[in-house]
Amino acid sequence: MFRKSVLPARFKHWLQPWQAVDWWLFAAPVALTILGGIMIRSVELNAGWADWWRHWITGSVGLVLALLIARWRYDQLLQWKWIIYGITNASLLLVMFVGREELGAQRWINIFGFNVQPSEFAKLGMIITIAALLHERSASTIPMMVKVLVIAAVPWVLVFLEPNLGTSLVFGSITIGMLYWGNANPGWLLLLVSPVISAILFNVLLPIWGIGIFIIALWVAFIGWTAWKTLPWKTYGTLVPVVINLIAGGLGRVLWQYVLKDYQKQRITMFMNPDQDPLGGGYHLIQSRIAIGAGEFWGRGLYKGTQTQLNFIPEQHTDFIFTAIGEELGFIGSVAVLLTFLLICFRLLIIAQNAKDDFGSLLAIGVFSMIVFQVVVNVGMTINLSPVTGIPLPWLSFGNAALLMNFLAIGLVESVSNFRQRLKF
Amino acid sequence: MLQSPPTIAYQKHTRSVGRKNQALTLTFGVAAMILGGLGGRLAYLQLMQGTQNRELADSNRIRLLPKQPERGKILDRKGKILAGSRLSHSVFLWPLAQKKAEWSHTLERVSQILNIPVADIQKRLETEGYNSPYRVRIARSISPQKVTALAESIGELDGVQVDAEAVRSYPNGDLAAHVLGYTGELTDDDFKKHHLDHYRLGDVIGQMGIESAREQDLRGEWGGQQVEVDGAGNVVKILGEKQTHAGKDVTLTIDLDLQKAAETALGNRKGSIVAINPNNGEILAMVSRPAFDPNLFSTRISEKQWQRLQGEDHPFVNRALQGYPPASTFKIVTTTAGLESGKFSPDTVLATSASIRVGGIDFGDWNHAGFGPQGFVGALTWSSDTFFYQIGMGVGDQTLIQWARRFGFGQKTGIELGDEEASGLVPDNAWKQKEIHESWFLGDTVNMSIGQGFLQCTPLQVAGMFAIAANGSYRVKPHLLQDNESAENWREPLNLKPKTVRILHEGLRGVVNGGTATAAFSGTDLAIAGKSGTAEDFGRESHTWFGAFSPVDKPQIVVVAFGENSGGGGGSFAAPMVRQVLEAYFHPDKAKKQQAEVVAAPRD
Question: N or C: where does chain A have the smaller number of CB atoms within 10 Å of the terminal CB?
């Protein structure tokens, strides 16, 4: 469509190897990376350091790598899946022992002077491994789903122990998304996440008694019904999830009331009511909200946001980069960024839909899950809709490892697009 | 689809995942989350609340106002205030009130009025940061004149605020300074060193003594407000608030009146006085000199004051908790070792002489003549050195060392002041090999038997020793906190024979009643038993000791006075101080009128 009509004929020869890639899927991340560099520069103007250009350098390297990957057959990865899985886990293990500590977590390894964050690349490793597994046999049976879950659990636990809560949540969303696409029964996936929901429900609703208990009972009954309908073994299949949910709810309540310290609880619930700790973490969340709100419709103009220029927001060039966009580019800029992400998501879905095999289709969905989750949680955090978890905003946040990994992921999906049918040459 | 040939050999099948409805579900799900959830919230913040948010951002009108909790008081055993708080005026700057470049004029004016160098104020401002929503304290406890001067020109001083603030105050000045310690602002170094949670630069923190040891109780919990201010800096609205919780009061076992008497008794002489209850270890008074006035640190101490303090002889060292040779007071241990080991019967009588020769060295008696044949009681009464040399050699170094440790020497008493206490030293062969590279000689045993040589004991440990002699049966744990029940109930039985206790009581009673300290106690109606000590410090004046308890048959109090390099003798220098404290304890009304008097007495 786009590529056939617009490109002049003489480029066609050079573009031959990429003739079936999705150009939108290249254009959108590149646009975001360019914008990211500009916004990082804006944040850094008054912060006393200036390495924003590294964002563009890394982005360029990432783009070149993505283009190279796009002309290389992705399905060769199938035979490498265990090697990739092994390297992923090994690098995560390595970081625990020789990693550099930052903000209380082991996250970085130094390789030839470069700080590498294995947990970023582990996301991609995990997508490839799960896609390859589900390619062999889809998750339409319980044993297959359990197998995938067990295999995904190893890197998940390693990341969780770093501790890196944000990335472990991303892992979770990747796994759930791919299982869903891989023909797992949605009921099973609901059962899978239900204990977490129970733990939250028990904490929120139990103190209200009457109506609260009624809602909890409804929820547990619904879980029982889902299990009855979807699991092959009726009696135990129903009983076990119900009991597990009741236990999870009880444990969640105990954990919240007796184990977690006040400041830990505060960190989790802060986003709902930043005013509860006006002098601590809540202050920054309020400043972040004010910054975005102050952008109004047209924004305050690039380099003119007072909140941004006066450094009111911590970690603004990394996790909180969206606040700079909100303040300086306004509603129009923020929505444009969200629409760009939406475009990326749609292209990923289209590629997933048109892929020639399960492996390619699942790769696209894995990347899709990863990006959707990160965007929603990251932007949500800056506007007080989700807790602060340390998840970067793809292509916009400063951070070499994440930026490179996001381009590699795009390259991989482009390869799926590129080889979606038998080539005619 | 199915007929398309596999492109790679190991590809088993074509597509089985991703049905149309799944793609549609995900599409709707994502669109709803991104456009509905995030976009909706953005519309609310930027379009509906945009004007308010822009106002908040424009004026940077949010300020954080931490509220200091009232620091807990330190009380004496009767509830009298040893450390409290008073209100005073502090000066603050709001960094956000002016742009970085505009500050210089204001800083100069403030510097003139307060008489603080501009550089100092600027450094404070920079440490906090020009974008900080917190105010910075630049002066504490300023005079009323300066408050007036600032108030007069406050119109041209944007971002300067004068506010009342509680400041630590010690109503009795340097009284019990070493017990109480002092408070000061948290410095940059402290901050880095301790990694303190919930503290901010400039917070007040206990730096020594009980102030430091009980910091967690005394401090209380900070609260604060997040406020919106108008252009002039007045609070328009309180956006969020957290209550403060006052610190807990701490009650000490110290008795203010007795402490005063002990301070008077010691006067300006270098040394210390400790008074404890021999039955449960409560510390009733503890003085160390030279001292300092902790009030100086509650505001900001000036360079000059600091220099003067440093010029004195270590005023911050609590001498009641430092080790010195205990000299003849240690004869209590030697007596006990001799009698309890069974090597010497209570009826033992030994010849004393001008000196005895051990390993080629003459060890003399202090009067250079000896006291003729003496039993334990007589030897204690006259403090005969040659008598105790023989006892020491008779029981041997092992037994003597063992008994020194049983009396609590060589280890911290565990008083609630942590590292400010030294453990003292009970030397033994292993220690001497390691430190001096020599083995233990008989001469070391001889020296130790009269409390000389390498032995180091703190005045508090010596008080602990007297407590054992007084109560006759157990060691107590000296402590300062009234609610320290584990220390109060702590007893370590020594299982002394009744005969041993009787000899100690008679011997120590004899010291006061006809013996070496008779003159110091002449005319008192109190039944006192005590022991003097004079420790040689080669090349310098000797240290002097006197420890006593009273009443002899049912002791209520132990008092130990120690003079560091005071010269003179324990009986003449230290004993009168002990008497003064004891008189104050038993006759509180009379004591207040009495003046310190130094009575001449023979050296021990």
Answer: C
Angle between helices A281-294 and B50-59 (to 10 degrees): 120
Which two tokens mark B501? Answer: 């206790």
User: Searching chain A, which residue's CA lies closest to the CA of residue B49?
Assistant: A293
- The complex's ipTM? 0.88
| Helices and strands (H, E) in chain A, number of each type | 17, 3
Q: Å from B33 to nearest chain A CA?
A: 7
Contact of A301 with chain B, judged by CB distance below 8 Å, is answered with no
Q: Note whether A295 contacts B: Cβ–Cβ < 8 A.
A: yes
Q: What is the pLDDT along chain A (425 residues), one digit of tens a residue?
A: 445 555 566 777 777 888 888 999 999 999 999 999 999 999 988 777 778 899 999 999 999 999 999 999 998 999 999 999 999 999 999 888 877 666 555 567 776 666 678 889 999 999 999 999 999 988 889 899 999 999 999 999 999 888 888 899 999 999 999 999 998 988 999 999 999 889 888 888 888 778 888 998 999 999 999 998 888 888 888 888 888 888 888 888 888 888 877 767 777 777 777 766 666 667 788 889 989 999 999 999 998 887 887 777 878 888 999 999 999 999 999 999 999 999 999 999 999 999 999 999 999 999 999 999 999 999 999 998 888 888 999 999 998 899 999 999 999 999 999 988 754 44
Alpha-carbon distance of B127 to B107, in angstroms, equals: 15
The CA radius of gyration of chain B, in Å to the nearest whole number, is 35
Contact A345 B34 (CB under 8 A): yes
Do the beta carbons of residue A413 and residue A363 sit within 8 Å? yes
Cα–Cα dist B413/B409, whole Å: 9
Tokens of B235: 């609070």
Of B452, B450, B478, the closest CA to residue B463 belongs to B478
**pTM, two decimal places:** 0.60
Q: Which tokens sit at A352?
A: 């997933």
Which amino acid is located at B491 in the chain?
R
